């Protein structure tokens, strides 16, 4: 099916098809965007189109020898490189250097797909840069990265950037339905990523997680600091689950705010039933303001336990102070 397989990335696909039909192919591309939104799949289709014997309007024919070999993962002119452990190492890039200057075996181009390029070590990035500065004839590099800011400027400046955007929930729902997968969690938790949505569905019991969070919110109101520190210790153990938990806490207070200010049930996101009803919008607003600061901290190399302890203490103090003021009033 070619690029028709890619959903929700119309702009990226249009850019690539325009390059294929015009023949103006860059020697290096940087596909960037969150994980699980179609970058790798698009790169493989682009590689098929580049090596295809009979491309039509920017699409691979899918029936020629080159397309069949590419689909089976056995094309000699298409090479994929993935991190070795937690990084892309210089030895991997040096192995590529010994291949990229060879002539194409069968296709029109030799295509190198580098997964998770943001994990290049400094030495590996410098080694790759040498190749990009003097690109071999008819060799195309496709770098896949989640965050271009984690790549050296020298690498970024030598690539044509193709942005991949988070997917709409409707697109994610369609993709899951095609795979025969029923959504067991709110699709908003996947943050626009099919891959992340599937991982979360495998890992979490959504109803139990909501119940756990409701207990946490109850402890913010009534428990002592010992319980708060215990919650921080528990949350710190799983960074991926932590992000989901923090998002659900924010969703719960958002639902509480909507309920107490509008009373419109149709505007709720479905988490309010797990927590006590709220009649003080100031508490919700103050807590949401604190919750919105956390993602910035998580992006940096901070002491995670300390961030969580301070966050929960602040939330507890907000609950206590606002209710004290209400009782005085």
UniProtKB/TrEMBL annotation:
GO biological process, one term: DNA-templated DNA replication
Residues spanning the membrane: none
EC number: 2.7.7.7
Pfam family, one: DNA_pol3_delta2
Record's keyword terms, sorted: Nucleotidyltransferase, Transferase
InterPro entries in alphabetical order: DNA_pol_HolB, DNA_Rep/Repair_Clamp_Loader, P-loop_NTPase
Taxonomic source organism: Thermanaerosceptrum fracticalcis
Top EC class, one word: transferase
Gene name as annotated: holB
Coiled coil, from the record: none
Molecular function via GO: 3'-5' exonuclease activity; DNA-directed DNA polymerase activity
Lineage: Bacteria, Bacillati, Bacillota, Clostridia, Eubacteriales
Identification of the protein by name: DNA polymerase III subunit delta
